[in-house]
Amino acid sequence: MPNDKPRIAVDAMGGDFGPHIVVPAAVKAAREGVAITLVGDEDSIRKELAANSAGGLDIDVVHTTQIVEMEDKPADALRRKRDSSIQVACRLVREGKADGVVSAGNSGATVACGMFVLGRIKGVQRPALASVMPTEKNPVVLIDVGANVDSKPSHLLQFGLMADVLSRDVLGVEKPTVGLLSIGEEEGKGNAMVKDSFDLFRSSDLNFIGNVEGRDIFTGDVDVVVCDGFVGNIALKLSEGLAGSMNKIMKRELKSSLLSKLGAMLSMRAFKRFKKVVDYAEYGGAPLLGLKGLAVVCHGKSNPKAMTNAILMAATFVTNKAHEHLAAGLDAHQSLSNGAGSGEHNSAA
Amino acid sequence: MPNDKPRIAVDAMGGDFGPHIVVPAAVKAAREGVAITLVGDEDSIRKELAANSAGGLDIDVVHTTQIVEMEDKPADALRRKRDSSIQVACRLVREGKADGVVSAGNSGATVACGMFVLGRIKGVQRPALASVMPTEKNPVVLIDVGANVDSKPSHLLQFGLMADVLSRDVLGVEKPTVGLLSIGEEEGKGNAMVKDSFDLFRSSDLNFIGNVEGRDIFTGDVDVVVCDGFVGNIALKLSEGLAGSMNKIMKRELKSSLLSKLGAMLSMRAFKRFKKVVDYAEYGGAPLLGLKGLAVVCHGKSNPKAMTNAILMAATFVTNKAHEHLAAGLDAHQSLSNGAGSGEHNSAA
């Protein structure tokens, strides 16, 4: 870290549109006070920087020669593309030259590079992907959304502890409520894994409110929802898909007659506010928690706003010393987490 | 069965509003040619029948003295409330006096009564709840949405076989496409249970298209989506919750100014069509498949339209001999289903 400002390494080649989307987004974050290191093909990056009048901003460029494609397998990306933008960006964090990394590239490869290049915080059994999602009221953190499958109760407890810190330090929630995602609110409802996790959560320092159901995620009445990555990934993609479908159907219906078109025009401001509430871009990416350094995984289709917000989220995470709080929280619960076995790591990537 | 018309036993006391909602819904189904047996408190039922001018329709009434409350435990409902409307309705099916049962009462109790009073079709390891959900195009069948947790691969295959019949016989899909719900499309993505199920599905006669993801459920590109009941129940409730939240937010925004109110009025028809697409009431209830006789579980908050549609769905199921097709399909795949062990039954109810 060259100075007090958080420095975020940004994978300029990631996402479906690469530097053309990523660089303007990074420039915008730099204007808001984040130090940026853009990692990728230097020529393309410089061209975009010039086009976005980035002179005078705290933006470094690190040239790399390889790109991880969307269809590359994570293990291959790790072994065969050592000079890829995402791997080099992670290395900058490991070497202390940046505080966090943001990528909209191949998610599996980003997770794998994060895991193996950065390494886990001591005591972390499995790093987990958290997703910050909009609700009717405050945003909710859903964890894990796909870094792990077949998790054990002790893993789930750690997911909850890490998301609790995210909710406090990044979203500013004072004492986040934490729920276990299940299929009934009463204790004793759920599958074997959730039932076995209940007592661990109850014994922890978390503000545990018991089981929550699928319908509770979007009410905004719970701040952190904990689940295995298989369930969380399905929930996340289902939500994205359903919100997208509903928007599409609504647009189609509103265009179906002159009258409804006129009506839609008059209600434009309402629609914009509606879109803002259901818009994932508001929050940007999914932070991979539990590593020595933060990695934020963005959607491949991220627009500039989503990328900028992901970079700002990473910066807030660093500024508010979330890492120290995370390590302390895990440490305080070591005896609980060790109870139920750490098991081997089943990466879903 | 007194004649060719399917006869459906309807739990008149079920749902948040009992006979007041259920009886008019049943009357409407009777007008469309379904023979009905209303089960519950005779006085209340007769009053509602009179209020809905049901004279001349093929509607029987069977009096019962007990009601399963929403907070009753399924096992208690089964043991201590033998004269409850839901248990008696199931008994009518077992005794051949009705062809199917529809209830909006306590879901867990309905599932338990179905399981224990009706019994399983020979060869069925675990009956499963199917949900028919609206999409951008054709409806999709999601199975299991909560009758089982910790399912095994052979259970999942049977869920797929049963939902395939539902899709053909009730929704009229000629050769339904069947997908396994997972967290990546490629074979080998998913948790241990899904990975172990993939080959079973591939070896079956199903029109198996491989893994599908959460985002694929609502595109309408797959007819049947198979998953464990823990995942399916979360997916179902999440969808209901998200669709409800989006509707609520949209309404709030549209009422926020005079201009947007006016716009909303002009677009009213479009909104109505939108609601129709995302409205679960279109399809009614969730059929519990694999029993000797059909039980359809409806949402406690079901409106009359949802109840009527659930009764019509049950009648179509019977008319099209779905039960025979279901038994035949399971029989043809017996060697596959027996491979991966049936295991003990973990009811989620």
UniProtKB/TrEMBL annotation, chains A, B:
GO terms for cellular component: cytoplasm. It is found in: Cytoplasm. GO terms for biological process: fatty acid biosynthetic process; phospholipid biosynthetic process. GO terms for molecular function: phosphate:acyl-[acyl carrier protein] acyltransferase activity. It catalyses: a fatty acyl-[ACP] + phosphate = an acyl phosphate + holo-[ACP]. Pathway: Lipid metabolism; phospholipid metabolism. The keyword Acyltransferase applies. It is an enzyme of class 2 (transferase). This is Phosphate acyltransferase. It comes from Pseudodesulfovibrio senegalensis.
